[in-house]
Structure formats: structure tokens, C-alpha cells
């Protein structure tokens, strides 16, 4: 008996196409995997971990209303720019308030010096 007869057959076109079909179907339809892990000691809940996993294409996720990655500055340069613009506007507003407060204090000090 030869070793070639015992070797498994290489993966053919059919199995690759099946995997591609399955992956396409999962991404098109989406799949949800959910589970909870709870750790109790003497009927006292110490830890609860809720796991939720959604596997879907970007288009399917958007269709379901899931688009958190678009607003996450760590994942989206547009979101990062928006966050920096918002922060910049807040800092400019705070600076303007501080400058107006400083001017009011300076005016009050001048008035007190004029009275003395």
C-alpha cells in the first residue's frame, strides 16, 4: 500500500465555493450570537458579563441601524475631525468668557483706583 493512497484529498473547487457561499449568506443576512456569563457565590451575584456578537456586512449593519463605527473617533477620521472641531469651539468659548471676565475685573480695579 502506498502513502499516496492514505493522504487526504486536497480541497477542491467545490469546498471553496461552499465556504464562499456560506460567508456571503452570513454577511448578507447577518448572524447574532448572544450569551451571558454569571458568577455567583452563595447566591450572591459577583460578576455578570453579557456578550453580544453580530456578524454582518457593513451594508446590512447600516440597514439594521448599526453604525457606531462612523461616530467613533478611534475608527473614523471624520469623527475624529468632528470631535476636534467641537473641542476647539468649546475651548474658544471658554477663552472668550475668561477674557471678558478678566476685562471686567480690570475695569473694576481701575474704577476703585480712580475713587481712591
From TrEMBL:
Keywords: Coiled coil, Gas vesicle. Residues 74-111 form a coiled coil. It comes from the Bacteria. It is found in: Gas vesicle. InterPro entries: Gas-vesicle_GvpA-like, GvpA, GvpA-like_CS. PROSITE patterns: GAS_VESICLE_A_1. Belongs to the gas vesicle GvpA family. This is Gas vesicle protein.
Amino acid at each position: 500500500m502506498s502513502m499516496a493512497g492514505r493522504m487526504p484529498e486536497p480541497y477542491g473547487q467545490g469546498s471553496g465555493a461552499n465556504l464562499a457561499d456560506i460567508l456571503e449568506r452570513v454577511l448578507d443576512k447577518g448572524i447574532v450570537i448572544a450569551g451571558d456569563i454569571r458568577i455567583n457565590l452563595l447566591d450572591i451575584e459577583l460578576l455578570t458579563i453579557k456578550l453580544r456578537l453580530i456578524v454582518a456586512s457593513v451594508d446590512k449593519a447600516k440597514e439594521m441601524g448599526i453604525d457606531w463605527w462612523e461616530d467613533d473617533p478611534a475608527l473614523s477620521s471624520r469623527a475624529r475631525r468632528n470631535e476636534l472641531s467641537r473641542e476647539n469651539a468649546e475651548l474658544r468659548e471658554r477663552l472668550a468668557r475668561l477674557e471678558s471676565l478678566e476685562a471686567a475685573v480690570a475695569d473694576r480695579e481701575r474704577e476703585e483706583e480712580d475713587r481712591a
